Amino acid sequence: MRFVLLGGGVFAVSLFVVQGQAGVPSSLPLPVLITVAAVAGLAAWRVRWSWWELAAVGAIGYVWLAMWPPLLVASYHAGLTLSRRSGIAAYLGGCLGVCGAAAAVGVYEGGLREMMTATLSNAALTALATMVLPLALGLWVRARREVLEAAGERAERLEHEQVMRAEQARGQERARIAREMHDVVAHRVSLIVLHAGALEVRAADEETVQAAALIGGIGREALGNLREILGVLRSPVREVRPPPTLGDLDRLLDQSRALGIAVTRHDEGEARSLEATVERTVYRVVQEALTNVHKHAGNVGTDVRIRYGPGELEVEVRNDAPEAPRDELTGAGWGLVGLRERVELLGGTLRTNVRDDGGFLVNARIPA
């Protein structure tokens, strides 16, 4: 659109000049002047492809009719385009030649034309206003653009470097955490597995052998999960097994039953597949709740309820009161805090409280 406006403006001003209102009046008929001005406007419109066409039209128009608008626009675009000093010097030399030719034509025609183009002061002023200053303006605009582009590239490069440094720091921190987990947690779990295996071999009664085998199996599974986590920490692109979902819930309940807890599962509503993040969060809620039952209530009856609502999924784990007083669950550690963060990240709510009969309740509602 701006190029159309540029062409129309050059046409209008050129016609205004050659008719004598802002230049030397021409003796050519009006249709010829309109045609010449239209050619100048077309050349100005085509400057988006190449400015030399406009420069050629401007040179011819200035020598023939003292028509300066095309040459003014061409000089500006020459400043935007020419990058080498030799090119700029060549363009200025061409402008000087055009001024000399226009002065010669002015001397030949005489009168107002001679005064406008052949007088040294007027010719110098015209050349300065229509050729030199627009060229200098174009050079300044181009230099400013280059400075802004260089500043933008530098800012982008600094931002990229900052991201790379942050990623490097995260990688180093992941590696440190992985080392700590390997040296401390994995080592302790490995000892548990080894002692469970030794107990399984040396135990005399069948119940102890089964309990030791279950502890060893759970420990080996925990070691496998730890290795996957350590692999992710060391290399984020490493492929790991799919995270647990509701389909793995029965296996988790069977492990608790094998340890002596009477776990009962109740499903309410129409079961349906849900987003992986929702199912994984429900699995972790049940897992943490059963872990707390093991630690703080012992072998007591526990109910696990999964309710499929129209817009949410509710999971509830409630256990009976322990037979003997145990540690309060509220001081158990960071397990419930982590669960609350998991649930709230999905827009849900987590409620935990001691029941009137001494048992404990964990209830989570998650949008589904």
Quick structural summary:
This protein has 11 helices and 5 strands. By secondary structure, it is of the alpha+beta class.
Written account of the structure:
This is histidine kinase. Its EC number is 2.7.13.3. The protein has helices at 2-18, 30-45, 52-65, 69-81, 85-109, 111-117, 120-202, 206-234, 249-258, 276-296, 335-345; strands at 263-268, 302-308, 312-319, 349-354, 360-367. With 368 residues, it is of the alpha+beta class. Among the domains are: 2-118, no CATH class; 244-368, Heat Shock Protein 90, CATH 3.30.565. A hairpin with a 3-residue loop joins strand 2 and strand 3 (312-319). Residues 328-332 have low confidence and may be disordered.
Essential attributes:
368 residues, kinase activity, nucleotide-binding, Heat Shock Protein 90, single chain, rod-shaped, 5 strands, HATPase_dom, alpha+beta
Average of the residue pLDDT scores: 78
Percent helix, as a range, is 55-70%
Number of helices: 11
Structural Rg: 43 Å
Note the run of SSEs as H and E: HHHHHHHHHEHEEHEE
Question: Which structural class matches the secondary elements?
Answer: alpha+beta
Name given to the CATH architecture of the domain at 244-368? 2-Layer Sandwich
Question: What amount of the residues lies in strands?
Answer: 5-15%
Shape: rod-shaped
| Biggest pleated sheet | 5 strands, mixed
Strand line-up in the sheet with most strands: 1-2-3-5-4
Highest CATH level, the class of the domain at 244-368 = Alpha Beta
Q: Find the CATH superfamily of the domain at 244-368.
A: Histidine kinase-like ATPase, C-terminal domain
CATH topology of the domain at 244-368: Heat Shock Protein 90
What's the total count of β strands? Answer: 5
* Span between termini: 51 Å
Stretches where pLDDT is under 50 for at least 5 consecutive residues are 328-332
Catalytic activity: ATP + protein L-histidine = ADP + protein N-phospho-L-histidine
Keywords: ATP-binding, Kinase, Membrane, Nucleotide-binding, Phosphoprotein, Transferase, Transmembrane, Transmembrane helix, Two-component regulatory system
Domain Histidine kinase/HSP90-like ATPase: 278-367
Pfam families: HATPase_c (PF02518), HisKA_3 (PF07730)
